[in-house]
Q: What sequence folds into this?
């Protein structure tokens, strides 16, 4: 065994003895259990506020104690967030497309060929020809 493997093995044995000893004394058998017992609902809310993923998980677990009104409000909020996400994604794609068109117009003004503009922007040659007519 290498020294790091040996050290890890010794550490595991030491931890195992400590866990066994603490469980015999009636203490939590792991730090995770200890901290879980000491964590308040307020602590969980504070943690959840800092991480959207943890917030979502916390809300999912917390849902089991909600009444019908709370569940409906939660579902509506989730739907609103998904709508906002879809709108942002659509607007991003729209902005990218407008950017390609603007670049194509500028390249047309600079005298660059339709084929090169099509390759550079990903726009079709038909779209570029139409833009060329608008620019002229």
A:
């Amino acid at each position: 065994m290498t020294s790091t493997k040996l050290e890890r093995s010794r550490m595991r044995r030491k931890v195992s003895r400590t866990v066994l000893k603490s469980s015999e004394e009636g203490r939590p058998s792991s730090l995770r259990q200890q901290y879980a017992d000491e964590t308040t609902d307020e602590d969980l809310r504070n943690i959840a506020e800092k991480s959207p993923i943890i917030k979502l998980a916390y809300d999912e677990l917390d849902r089991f104690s909600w009444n019908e009104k709370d569940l409906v409000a939660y579902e509506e909020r989730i739907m609103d967030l998904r709508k906002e996400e879809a709108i942002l994604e659509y607007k991003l794609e729209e902005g990218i497309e407008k950017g390609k068109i603007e670049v194509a117009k500028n390249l047309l003004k600079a005298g660059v060929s339709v084929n090169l503009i099509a390759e550079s922007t990903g726009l079709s040659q038909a779209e570029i020809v139409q833009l060329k007519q608008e620019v002229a």
Q: What stands out?
A: The mean pLDDT is 77.
